[in-house]
Design goal:
The strands form 3 sheets. Strands 5-6-7-8-9 form a 5-stranded antiparallel β-sheet. Strands 1-2 form a two-stranded antiparallel ribbon. The chain is built from 4 helices and 9 strands. The protein has one domain. It is of the alpha+beta class.
């Protein structure tokens, strides 16, 4: 099963889930409901294509298995109002995802050859609120963690609309 999405600029993003479970992504509807998702997938594709082994810094190449795992993580997130995450390669072949809203941050780190992801949630004072490890089966917990970012933002937006 392959999902092709054409953007107005005629850029093509090919998302081919290489895993047995049915993808959470639905053609086009997902990108309309979750506008941050397409740009996040493009960012992941860019770092996968540009990865290299830099002497003194490390190996910034992302394996296809790690990229697939990150796509799976992104496809499990069911929060429409998220900003586009900052996506960074991590030396050794990992990927870091960072969401920041009004000083609150969630950092998700995916390491190569690991079916888990590490997360860290911090508040506006840069204090650690929670951290730990998650598996793909913990979709509700993942969404709860990210939901804490938009919870306050949604309240601030609705107060400002009055």
């Amino acid at each position: 099963m392959s999902l092709l999405c054409y953007q107005m600029q005629s850029q093509r993003v090919d998302i081919t889930p290489p895993y047995a479970i049915e993808s959470q992504l639905e053609p086009t509807a997902s990108f309309e409901r979750f506008p941050w998702l397409l740009e996040a997938l493009r960012g992941l594709q860019r770092i996968c294509e540009s990865g290299q082994n830099i002497s003194g810094i490390g190996d910034l190449r992302i394996s296809s298995q790690t990229a697939s795992f990150v796509r799976r993580v992104l496809s499990l997130i069911s929060i429409p109002r998220l900003p586009v995450p900052r996506i960074s390669p991590i030396s050794g072949g990992g990927v870091g995802l960072l969401w920041n809203i009004s000083g609150k941050e969630v950092v998700i780190t995916v390491y190569p050859n690991d079916e888990r992801l590490a997360y860290m949630l911090s508040n506006e004072q840069d204090e650690l609120v929670s951290d730990g490890m998650l598996t793909l089966e913990q979709q509700r917990t993942l969404n709860s963690i990210l939901g804490q970012l938009v919870e306050r933002y949604a309240c601030m937006t609705s107060d400002g609309d009055r």
